[in-house]
Amino acid sequence: MEKLRRLFYPDFIRVAALFCVLIYHFQVEARRWTGAFQGIPRLESGIHGIDIGQIGVSLYFILSGASLMISKKSFHTVAFYKNRILTLIPAYYLVWFGAFVGTLLLSPESLEGVKPWTICFTVLGLDGYLLEMCPNFYKVGEWFFGCLLLIYLVYPLLRKGMERYPKLFLSVVFGLWGLCILFAQTPLLAERTFYMRIPEFVLGMYFMKYWNKHINVQGMIGVVLSIFSLWISPLFGNAQILCLAGCGCGVFMTLRMIASWIDGFSIAKIRRVIVGLAGISFEIFLLHHFALIHILRIFFGDRELSQWGGAMLFVGWFVIIGGFAWILHKVIGKIKAG
After folding, report:
1. Is the confidence at residue 5, as pLDDT, over 70?
2. What does the alpha-carbon distance between residue 252 and residue 256 come to, in Å, rounded to a whole number?
3. CA distance 174 to 178
4. Contact (Cβ atoms closer than 8 angstroms) between residue 27 and residue 296
């Protein structure tokens, strides 16, 4: 049962993070592309400067660190990089190519002024991450996809420090984080700078390896931490990252408690749905934004969209991208198999 719980709660949190991002982007893009859509403005504006999308992103960073610690097999750096490439890059390239062809057919004007050499950012998976600094051929993946790729580059070093000197390592990570918050001039927003998100990733590693007891107590602490982080937000400058990380960690701890309750009741149908969605969540993540923008632009541009219509559109959009994500997942599985 302990093994099942540890395998279930990452899937549960992954699905929760996915819906945070989906709901946020739907709210933002529906208000942008339709004539009149109010939706739930608080989803976009957030509470004290922290919105649901930012919470979802923080959950992704924490969960990414946690997920890498699930396996009990011996760690090998070369095998790790090979696995990351096979897991992430083929799907990314396939979806990007489809989105690029779609852009040529549906909105070629959006490519005007983009310098051909910037395709190298797409090849590296960093186009979304670097978009604010340099216009490029970004189509899929969101900015934090590239951010995670950069963190994966230093993961073997992070893992070695955590396994050999866990307490000292955690102190060093947070000490350096504090110095960066106080003194670093980040080229991007602090929340979009990869080294500013490493502490959340490291905390995810610790949650999985060392903090697996007293889940209910942790959940209660998580509720308090989330409320406190929202209450003190916003902070000035780089310090706002503390509120985002605190809220994300609090929500992570709370969701892990809820997942343990669901797992304890052994509700098989709920488990199957959550595990199934988690299995195709990366493909949904790649597909969702491009598909949403063009559905809204083509079919709902400057048309009035009611609350009920928006809810129905969200469901229909999710079914469409879910179906394509399932197909893509099967294709990628065959590619990885050989």
Report:
1. no
2. 6
3. 6
4. no
